[in-house]
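step: validate -> pass
step: tokenize input -> pass
step: predict -> running
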Amino acid sequence: MTPEPCPCGWPAAYLSCCGRYHLGALAGQAPTPEALMRSRYSAFVKDLREYLLDTWHPSTRPPFIEAPEPGLKWLGLSVRRAEMTGADEGTVEFVARSKWGGRAHRLHEISAFVREGGRWYYVDAPQTRGDVPS
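step: predict -> pass
step: emit ->
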């Protein structure tokens, strides 16, 4: 049986890639902003809303995340740039592609991350072009 590929696009099996941050001893412990962003994309693909909330900084975290729209299919992730902007801060620019309602969409975002207590958290995306038809 072939291992399930990771949705994040890295050439690894899900359980040895983003799955290790979703489950078990490394849950929520992504080592870099890019690894956290990739694990969050994979969590959207797998509808792991608790993980998404747990890795969202409390200062900007919503009270809940709605269930995905029926028929939404995530098609892929492309990381354009990942950089540290300080000792405990980083940004990741990415494009996530999806299909819903018979139309292709892309989310182009530059996300901000912060490390507190040894853990990385998604803060916000001050530069986002969301739900842009492609």
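step: describe -> The chain has one domain: 14-133.
step: cleanup -> pass
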